[in-house]
Amino acid sequence: MRxxxxxxxxxxxxxxxxxxxxxxxxxxxxxxRTTLWPPVTVLLVGFAAVLWPAGRRPGWLTPQLRxxxxxxxxxxxxxGVLLTDRAQVPFGPGEALILLSLLFVAVxxxxxxxxxxxxxxxAVALLVLPVRYYRxxxxxxxxxxxxxxxxxxxxxxxxxYLRSLDYRRxxxxxxxxxAERVAIAxxxxxxxxxxxxxxxxxxxxxxxxxxxxxxxxxxxxxxxERAATEALASMRRTVGVLRDTxxxxxxxxxxxxxxxxxxxxxxxxxxxxxxxxxxxxAVSDDLPHEVQAAAFRVVQEALTNxxxxxxxxxxxxxxLARAGDRLEVAVTDDGHGGTQLPEAAHGGGFGLVGLxxxxxxxxxxxxxxxxxxxGWQVTVTFPVGKG
Length: 387
Prior knowledge:
Number of strands: 5
Radius of gyration: 36 Å
Strand content: 5-15%
Shape: rod-shaped
Oligomer: single chain
Distance between the termini: 48 Å
Order of helices and strands: HHHHHHHHEHEEHEE
Structural class: alpha+beta
């Protein structure tokens, strides 16, 4: 059995009511022995403007033309009645409803300032309808005009309110997309900076070993190749996300989790730097994804900073521990701050600033500073709820 949506039912009821009101217009005109072709023309033009399916409208049928043309035709009909001094010509609810519908479309959908021009045309055409029949009675014309003003005000007010909601929704979507792209750019910075820094360090190591230990170059060159491949893959994923606005794009966003930390630590190790991962068995893989992604970023940024600022470190330790309702991530090294990287590769601290913002947004706390004795330590704690 086919189901009908509530929106489709409302639209069908509205179309049926509009058709019934228009048939009533024609019956009244026929009963008063009035020429039928002028009101039929007005109603047909109005129906074409209101009921033409959106998916089948030609390009030239813009909202401005849709809302202005029937109002002009109706106004010309009224003007012709007045200028020719014909007998009283009736007006009915069908034409009035069409003009109100077009007023609604004009205010909500026409671009500015066409919205104002088309809305005024529809409102004026509606307000002068009574003149066709009550030309000699100003009292009746005024009474109908007051009712028309109320209807015009209510219709235009509702359309303007809905237009403001559409605008706010558009702004909210734009801001959301902008924030998502900023986050993706930050992810790209984290990934590429980490891999490129590794490439730079290992390239310097390869240059030194080329003269002294050429037989040991292969592992270093393999590490450079792996880091370059991962950097290119990260950029490819990011470009794919930026080009694709569909829901499947989120699945390709280059974020990590706790399971990826071991690969990160393993890939960081080099012949002159030993890297160790200590993971508490209480730290499970079912923690909130945003916490896992932030923990991964902490380890990634801390390891990148070791390469930048502590190239003389011989051992780097990464610890993942669970203490009650908090996850603790700690990265320590035994370096003295010595590094051979060019000054331009040291960075300006933006990675640590972004990391602090990410951690704080999750209710966590970040501490970074020298260790007792030697080296540097970065410690971050995240609230994760009861285990």
